[in-house]
Amino acid sequence: MNLNAEIFSGAAESPKPDGVPSDGGAPEVDEALDAAYWRAGIVNDFRVWLDEFCAEADASGPPAKDEESAPDLFALFGELAALRQETRGLARAAHQNGMQIETLAAALRSETTAQTAALSHAASDLKIQVPTARREAQTAVLTEILNVLDGVDNTLRAFLARPVPSWPWRAPAMKEREEAVRSMRMIADKINDALRRLNVAPLAEPGQEFNPRFMRAVAVTERGDASPGTVTEIVRQGYRKDDQILQIAEVEVNKQ
C-alpha cells in the first residue's frame, strides 16, 4: 500500500470534525480552518494506517532471512577495528625491534671502535717491541759468540804457556803444538771475521789511553816504553756493536 496515496485520499474523504463551522464564513477564517482540518485528517489517517501495518506484521510473523542478504555492518566494523588494532600492535612491535636493532648496532659500533683502538695500540707497541726484541736476541747471540771466542783465546794462551818437553820428545811435541795453535787461530779468525760482518768491533788496543767507560783495569804495570795511563796488555778484549757495549775490556794499565 502506498502510504502517501492513502493519507491524501483519506484526508480528502474524512468528515470535518465537530465544532468546525461550515463554509460561508470569512475567507481568512475559512483558510485557517481548512489547514487545521487537513492536518488533523493526515494525523488520523496515519494513525489508522500504522495500526493496520502493525496488525499485518504480527499476523505474518518475522520475515524470512534472505540467503544473499546485505553484509552485517556491525560485524564488518568490528573486523576493521580488530584489524586496525592488530596493525597498530605490529607497528609497535616493529618500532621496538628497530630500537633494539639500533641499540645493538650502536653497541657493535662501540665495541668495534674499542677493538680497533686496542688493535692499533697493540700494533704500535709491537712496532716498538719488535726492534727491541730483535736487538736483545742479537745481543744474546753475540754474547755467546764472544764467550766462545774468549774460550778459544784462553785455551790458546794456556797451550802456549805449557813448557816444551825435552829431547827426544821435543820435536813431536813442537809439531803437535804448532798444529794445535794453527787450528785454534783459524777458529778465532773465523769468529772475528763473523763479528766484523755483524759490525762488532774491539774496544781496546795496546797503547790506547785507558777509558773507564768501557775498560776495566785488572792490573797496573810500570813500563818505561809506555805512556802513563795507557793500556799495556789486553787480558780480555771488549766489544761493541754500534753504540752498544757488548763486553767490557779487561786490561793492564801503565802506572801514571
Please describe what this structure looks like.
The protein is mostly helical. Among the domains are: 48 residues; 71 residues; 56 residues, Head domain of nucleotide exchange factor GrpE (Nucleotide Exchange Factor Grpe, Chain A, domain 2, Roll). It is 63% helix and 11% strand. It has 4 helices and 6 strands, in the order H-H-H-H-E-E-E-E-E-E. It has a 3-stranded antiparallel β-sheet. Strands 2-6-3 form a 3-stranded mixed β-sheet, with no helix packed on it. Helix 1 packs across helix 2 and helix 3 runs antiparallel to helix 4.
List the helices and strands and how they pair.
Layout: H1 3-13, H2 27-60, H3 73-161, H4 170-197, E1 200-202, E2 215-221, E3 231-236, E4 239-241, E5 244-247, E6 249-254
Parallel strand pairs: 2-6
Antiparallel strand pairs: 1-4, 3-6, 4-5
Helix pairs in contact: 1-2, 3-4
Which key features would you list for this structure?
mainly alpha; Nucleotide Exchange Factor Grpe, Chain A, domain 2; 4 helices; three-stranded antiparallel sheet; three-stranded mixed sheet; single chain
Distance between the ends: 155 Å
Rg from Cα: 65 Å
Share in β-strands: 5-15%
Q: Work out the helix count.
A: 4
Helix content range of the residues, please?
Answer: 55-70%
Mean pLDDT, as a whole number?
80
Strand order of the largest sheet: 1-4-5
- Biggest beta sheet attributes: 3 strands, antiparallel
What's the β-strand tally? 6
